[in-house]
Design brief:
heterodimer; A: mainly alpha; 21 helices; 0% strand; B: mainly alpha; 4 helices
Chain lengths: 433, 159
């Protein structure tokens, strides 16, 4: 059997494992092991499995993942998100749809310390939805907004998705973080515009809230300031080469612990809750990466990604068509397999294509991030929708109906970012040579 | 089965606590290193220690994450199947996962043994690799136990 035939057979086997309900990380590892045994031999495959697992688990580089996740979990447990929401709500809560606009503002600020989309969605579902209920906001607007704003963290640094992409593709995490800032803000503006237009069209969806005094508004600002300082230290230190990404994650976590202790919002029980949540997410992600590493070594032997790259680059079409095709594969794949799992599975296959077409891997990281943002609110596997549905008790279908409205803006942003790569690359090119 | 279930739960939770302590240690060790570096007295070998602690964080949280159903699955097809077919697939996939983790555990034991025999250590602190290697192998064995218990637990729920 030729290596290419083995490669294709293993991809088929992999999807059988996925469909049967095997854990995706385990499925990738097992398919990679079987394929490597067939291509090279059982003895080398046994050695490969142990070596890959040990090297992924004990890699200094991968410790960045639990540390940045912990930073966000501590921020969630320590009430940082609530304070940010209070601040934005005091400024714009009194205009139509103001509480939803405030949610977008607070989530954008909260993303500066929390890199997990479902964690943000869960946090704001707990904080913002009851508040919007109080002012008779339509649940379609409140739940849809909360599910969607959770996705902002996928490209606004420090994003766990960009960290994983950076590790997988050996791209500078500092550059990726900088590249995500402007696109993240553009997407946030698209969310704000969606709410404004939606509420102008149907004012009953988001009635006005109470108007705060300027004294109350100014008093609510310090938490915003602290989050900005922590963000500046973490991303600035990383960018200047003062920290490694792992150190940036640790310093950020430590700073958030100190902040929440000063605000008397942190207790031992809350810290334990944050650590427990972190371990579960970190283990889930690293098992995916370990499985993908084993599968990746098998693909390297069969040269499958290079065959795919050769085939795609020889298609007689413009390179932007190929990129759109790859994006479509990410969207469709991410709708059926969990978005992060698909990113880990697909990126090593498509990166050679992207590089061969002459695109910048930093730009592609941002594009993959925006595609992932769409993926986490697209059925049937929109994880953020399920998180919000679980927290608020609202049926997932209704949350989906609210979240759909944001897809228009997100899709426009995606197209702008595809055709104007300078938007993503301007900041990293200014600061990192 | 109840005893096996209790044993797996206690072991998984104990390992989760160890992983949590390792994660906290990672944070404080790195922060101390960064602070001391400002005064030109970095903690020697932090890089190696954090790598090894990272292995403890991930390896030791594995059984409890599985017990809490924390891994990523694709439910797209299985949700549409009848309970009996779902049950059969669940048993089959648990067996496959147990097989995979047994392979990993056994080969990590062999790798740990090699590290022990050859005396391989980290470059700066001369810390031996084998205890962490054996540790992850033990976690994988506990993971097998958790997966084994899961077969019967789900069966019980169904009946």
């Amino acid at each position: 059997m030729s290596l290419f035939v083995i490669g294709i057979s293993v991809i088929g086997l992999l999807f059988v494992f996925f469909l049967a309900g095997l854990e995706i990380g385990v499925a990738m590892g097992l398919a990679g092991f079987i394929g490597f045994s067939a291509a090279v031999g059982v003895e080398p495959a046994l050695n490969l499995v142990a070596k890959d697992i040990y090297s992924v688990f004990s890699s200094y580089g991968f410790t960045v993942i639990p540390l940045f996740v912990l930073m966000g979990q501590v921020g969630s447990s320590g009430g940082v998100a609530r304070k940010l929401y209070d601040a934005t709500y005091k400024f714009i809560g009194h205009i139509p749809g103001g509480l939803a606009l405030g949610t977008v503002g607070a989530a954008t600020a909260f993303k500066a310390i929390c890199g997990s989309a479902p964690a943000t969605a869960a946090t704001f579902a707990t904080i913002a939805v009851p508040e919007m209920d109080r002012y008779n906001y339509d649940r379609k607007l409140s739940c849809g907004t909360v599910a969607t704003v959770g996705t902002l963290g996928i490209i606004i640094p420090p994003s766990v998705v960009l960290i994983i992409y950076g590790i997988l593709t050996e791209t500078s995490i500092g550059k990726l973080f900088l590249a995500g800032i402007i696109p993240g803000l553009i997407v946030a503006v698209s969310f704000l515009l969606t709410i404004v237009v939606w509420c102008a069209y149907n004012p009953k969806l988001g009635p006005k809230g109470e108007k705060s005094t300027w004294k109350e508004r100014i008093a609510s600002l310090p938490p915003l300031l602290w989050v900005f300082i922590i963000f500046a230290v973490v991303v600035g230190g990383l960018m200047q080469g003062f920290f490694t990404p792992t150190e940036a994650g640790s310093v950020g976590t430590f700073a958030v612990i100190i902040l929440t202790l000063m605000q008397k919002e942190m207790s031992v029980a809350r810290y334990i809750q944050a650590v427990a949540g972190t371990l579960r997410i970190a283990c889930m992600v690293l098992i995916l990466i370990a499985g993908a590493t084993i599968l990746g070594h098998f693909f390297a032997v069969t040269r499958t990604p290079y065959v795919v790259a050769e085939w795609l680059t020889h298609l007689n079409v413009d390179r932007s068509v190929i990129i759109l095709l790859i994006i479509a594969i990410y969207l469709i794949g991410g709708s059926f397999i969990e978005h992060l799992a698909f990113l880990i599975l697909a990126t090593p296959i498509f990166l050679p294509v992207v590089l061969k077409l002459g695109y910048d891997p930093v730009w592609f990281g941002v594009i993959v991030g925006v595609v992932t943002m769409i993926g986490v609110i697209l059925p049937p596997l929109g994880i953020n929708v399920f998180v919000v549905s679980g927290v608020t008790g609202e049926p997932a279908a209704r949350v989906y109906r609210g979240a759909y409205r944001y897809l228009i803006g997100l899709s426009i942003c995606l197209l702008i970012l595809i055709y104007f790569p300078e938007i993503s690359l301007w900041l990293p090119n200014q600061f990192i040579k | 089965m109840t005893i096996l279930s209790s044993v797996s739960r206690v072991l998984a939770r104990f390992m989760y606590v160890v992983a949590g302590i390792a994660l906290t240690a990672c944070v404080f060790l790195t922060v101390c290193d960064v602070l001391l570096r400002l005064f030109k007295h970095p903690i020697i070998g932090t890089y190696e220690l954090v790598g090894l602690l990272g292995a403890v964080v991930v390896g030791f949280s594995l059984p409890e994450t599985s017990r809490l159903n924390g891994h990523v699955f694709m439910h797209f097809l299985t949700d549409r199947l009848s309970d009996s077919v779902k049950g059969v697939l669940r048993v089959l996939t648990r067996i496959l996962a147990i097989g995979m983790f047994l392979i990993i555990a056994w080969n990590l034991m062999l790798m740990g043994h090699d590290f022990q025999v050859t005396g391989e250590t980290t470059a700066t602190l001369q810390l031996p690799f084998f205890p962490v290697c054996y540790g992850i192998a033990v976690c994988c064995f506990v993971e097998c136990l958790v997966l084994f218990v899961e077969i019967f637990k789900k069966g019980e729920t169904q009946s």
